[in-house]
Amino acid sequence: MIAKRAAQELIPYSIINLGIGIPTLVSDYLDQSKYYLHTENGLLGVTSVEEDQVDPLLVNAGKLPVGEAVGASYFHSADSFAMIRGGHVDVAILGALQVDGSGHVANWAIPGKDIIGVGGAMDLLSGAQKIIVTMSHVSKDGSPKLVECCTFPITSTRTADIVITDLAVFKWKDSEYELTELMGDATLGEVQEKTMAAFQVNEELLQKEGNR
Prior knowledge:
212 residues; Glutaconate Coenzyme A-transferase
């Protein structure tokens, strides 16, 4: 549901980087002939691949098997990061451990646990034209992941433009997040209860909920 909603934010023929986890599912909801999927280990033109067609040497940055589109191009990972840092990636879709009321994203480390590494997230948050975060609204223990201030190390000071969870869609507007849409059977009260970050409610949504 989250990945399908994220796909609706994408413009055909844009260059898109999909992060690990939920973001990898976004490609299932795209006409892959109309979008250019990028991976920071050096491929533009990533597609999904059937199990019997898997090449163990052809993987994305998360080491998952991928396919190659007609016209795909390969390049050194340094060139791939130069594309990111140079602003040539239109959209980055990332998972997150936390997003705070300032739009900061924490998605690479939990204090006290083994650190895998920041990967390309820091560069993507700095260089991509648009940032979409896809994540569950609460963690496994039920604690909110939209928080007042990140308690995990932040990945960048860049503000995430859109946050899509299993309960709601938030868009950055006038220096804060605006709740623009409820997902599935979620209610406004449920979102307010499970969100620690301050946010405004879109007037049309507020009116719609008030008329229920």
